[in-house]
Amino acid sequence: MIEVTLLGTGSPVPDARRAGPSTLVRAGDQTFLVDCGRGVQQRMAAAGTSASALTALLLTHLHSDHIADLGDLLITRWITTFGPDPHPLSIIGPPGTAEVVEATFKAFGHDIGYRIAHHDDLNAPPQVRVHEHTDGEVWNHGGVTIRVAPTDHRPVTPTIGFRVEFADASVVLAGDTVPCPSLDGLAQGAGALVHTVIRRDLVEQAPMQRIRDICDYHSSVEEAADTAERAGVGILILTHYVPAPQPGQEDEWRALAASRFDRQIELGDDLHRVLVHPGMGVRPAG
Ligand SMILES: [Zn+2]
Ligand SMILES: [Zn+2]
Description:
The protein is an alpha/beta fold. About 25% of the residues lie in helices and about 30% in strands.
């Protein structure tokens, strides 16, 4: 079984009720954070985990809303890991990730210096291992395998989706993308597909062109549902809502997805949790 928790269901627009894009995936004794949006660590605490408990950080792309709290995560993991020989955090992302991580450490260079000078048991800066990939298997440890494939979020490029497999259960995390054959392939037969979505019908009515521009490179609810249908996934999990649904409006979103995909559809607020069981026999967390 794989457990998926929507830590942050928001978007670049600050929202009182929604943290920035982040999803927690627990498989066996491994914990993966997928993207690292605004406020992610408060939601991780609410979900019963922490920066120091992460097995790896997976980044779908380098848009600000998906990496906003990277510095906070890296520094917090560093100062809250108390063992003598801290395990480096694996960070898997598209090309460009190493540069972003390096620049983040540079931005926090003063902080890192203060803490090393102050604490006798902090002798080295935070340790990470960055792996940049666009395709293929990127993880194979303790029964968990992770595969990536390119997505299409142009002009943002390169961008990737992840497929996490554990004990015959599988979850695909599409990130921000329009429908594309490589995502269809990655999601084929998966137990669940976590997909970021926008309401094209609403966003197209915005008076500002800059807002309407986001239609260029995101899937609508219907397009995400079409992808789920083509790939034959068991559960479609929607997140990264634009505009954010107000309380009571979730059914409208669900109906749009249900017009194209007739299996289980999940959406909700931050901390919404879905259990993905082996094969297609899938059901939500009780
Ligand atoms: Zn994006
Ligand atoms: Zn985004």
